[in-house]
Design a protein that fits this description.
Elements (H helix, E strand, L loop, with lengths): L1 E4 L14 H9 L3 E5 L10 H6 L3 E3 L2 H7 L2 E3 L6 H4 L7 E4 L7 H10 L2 E4 L14 H18 L21 E5 L3 H12 L3 E6 L2 H10 L4 E5 L2 H7 L5 E4 L25 E4 L20 E4 L2 E4 L9 H22 L1 H7 L1 H6 E4 L2 E2 L2 H6 L8 H4 L2
Parallel strand pairs: 1-2, 1-4, 2-3, 4-5, 5-6, 7-8, 7-10, 8-9, 10-11, 11-13
Antiparallel strand pairs: 6-14, 12-13, 14-15
C-alpha cells in the first residue's frame, strides 16, 4: 500500500502521524511511505531520519494526498485540505466528527473512507488510540491549570500545593476516565486538594483504592457540581462519550457561582466541550475570560509536547496501520472489530450512529460496506 504522511497545518500542531521507526516497520513489510517535506520537524524528526528508515520525501501536501492510498494524520483535515481528499482514499486520524458539521459534510462529499482513531474500540470497552493522547492531555491539563492560577495570567494567585501554614489549591475534575485519572495523579503529586466526580461507582471504588489520600471521589450530579464549584480553584473537564458530543456539565449560569480567577480547563473541547462557555482556542491564543472565570480550551493540547505525543501516538496506531496496509481497510475491518468500530464515514455514508444523530443525518450500518 502507498501511505502518505502530510504535514499538519492546524494552528501550532507540531505532531506528526508516524515516527521514522514506524515508517521503517511499514517499509519492511513492502509498503511505500511518502512523508511531506518537514512534516516531522516539529516533533524532532527531520527528513533525513525518514529517508534513512526507507521512506520517501515529497515537497508538498498536494503531492502527498495525490499519491497516497492511505493518509495517516494526527488531527482532522481542515478546510484547505478538504478538496485534497480523494474518492476511495482511506484517512486514518482523529476526526471528532460529532462536534464539527462542516468537516462531516466535506468528508461525506469526498466519498473517502474515514477511520477515526477516537472510535476504535476494544470488544470489552476501551479506546486504545485515544488513550495515549488522553494521558498526555490529562497531565497537561493540570500543568496548564497550575500555571494559569498565577495572578499575572488571570488566576487567583494560588500555588497548587501551598506551603506550610497555607491551604493547597482545590482541584475539581469532571470525569474519572483516562484524562481525569492522569489529571488527578498530577494534581495529587503537586499536593493539591483533589476531588474527582464520576457516575460509575465501580470506577470511583477503583480510584479510591489507587489514589493517594489527597484525592477524593464524589458522585457526578448537578447538585454536587454546583456545591463544589463555589470553592474550586481549578476545574478540569474530562468527560468523554465515544464518538459523540460531550454533555454540558457546567452551564453558563454556573460561572456566577465561581470565585473570580477560577481556572477552567476543558479537555473535552474537541468533542464540543463539557463546559458550555468553552470554545476551541489555540496554543497561540489559549485563554479567554467570562464573568471573571479564566477558560483554557486548546483543542490540541498534546501538540505542545510533540516529541512525547508523536512517539506515544505511533506506539498505539502502528499495529492498526500495519493491518490496514497489509489487508486493505475492508478486509482488516472484517477481521478486526476494533477497526470496524473506527469507521465513521464510508464513501458518502455515515456509518457511526453518534455522528449521524449529532447532525440528523441518515445512518448506514457499517456491515453494508463490509459484506463484499
Amino acid at each position: 500500500m502507498i501511505i502518505g504522511i502530510p504535514k499538519e497545518i492546524k494552528n501550532n500542531e507540531n505532531r506528526v502521524a508516524l515516527t521514522p521507526a514506524g515508517a521503517q516497520e511499514l517499509v519492511k513489510r513492502g509498503h511505500t511511505v511518502y512523508v511531506q517535506h518537514t512534516a516531522g520537524d516539529g516533533s524532532g524528526f527531520p527528513d533525513h531520519l525518514y529517508e534513512e528508515a526507507g521512506a520517501k520525501i515529497l515537497p508538498t501536501i498536494e503531492e502527498t494526498y495525490r499519491i497516497a492510498e492511505m493518509i495517516m494524520k494526527v488531527k482532522e483535515p481542515i478546510e484547505p485540505e478538504y478538496d485534497l481528499v480523494r474518492e476511495d482514499q482511506l484517512l486514518f486520524t482523529y476526526f471528532h466528527f460529532a462536534s464539527h458539521e462542516p468537516l462531516t459534510n466535506a468528508m461525506i462529499k469526498s466519498k473517502s473512507v474515514c477511520l477515526a482513531y477516537e472510535t476504535v474500540e476494544k470488544p470489552g470497552g476501551g479506546l486504545p488510540l485515544l488513550v495515549p493522547m488522553s494521558e498526555v492531555a490529562g497531565r497537561m491539563a493540570t500543568q496548564k491549570g497550575a500555571n494559569y492560577l498565577e495572578k499575572p495570567l488571570g488566576g487567583k494567585g494560588i500555588l497548587m500545593g501551598g506551603v506550610p501554614g497555607t491551604l493547597p489549591a482545590k482541584v475539581l475534575i469532571l470525569g474519572g476516565g483516562i484524562v481525569g485519572t492522569q489529571a488527578a495523579w498530577m494534581a495529587a503529586g503537586m499536593k493539591a486538594d483533589v476531588t474527582i466526580l464520576d457516575v460509575s461507582l465501580p470506577r470511583m471504588r477503583y480510584l479510591s483504592d489507587v489514589m493517594p489520600a489527597n484525592v477524593k471521589t464524589r458522585m457526578s450530579n448537578e447538585y454536587n457540581i454546583r456545591e463544589l464549584i463555589k470553592t474550586a480553584d481549578l476545574i478540569i473537564g474530562a468527560v468523554l462519550i465515544p464518538g459523540a458530543k460531550a454533555p454540558h456539565l457546567i452551564t453558563r449560569d454556573m460561572l456566577k457561582e465561581m470565585q473570580p480567577g477560577t481556572v477552567l480547563v476543558d479537555v473535552a473541547v474537541d468533542q464540543g466541550g463539557c463546559i458550555e462557555t468553552c470554545k476551541p482556542t489555540t496554543h497561540q491564543d489559549p485563554t479567554f475570560t467570562i464573568d471573571g472565570v479564566l477558560h483554557y480550551c486548546v483543542a490540541n493540547m498534546p501538540g505542545a509536547v510533540p516529541y512525547t505525543s508523536t512517539i506515544g501516538l505511533t506506539n498505539a496506531t502502528l499495529p492498526y496501520a500495519i493491518q490496514l496496509a497489509d489487508k486493505g481497510w475492508k478486509k482488516a475491518s472484517k477481521e478486526n472489530v476494533e477497526l470496524a468500530t473506527g469507521l465513521n464515514v464510508i464513501k458518502g455514508d455515515v456509518v457511526y450512529k453518534a455522528v449521524a444523530d449529532a447532525f440528523d443525518l441518515p445512518f448506514t450500518a457499517v456491515e453494508k460496506h463490509l459484506v463484499n
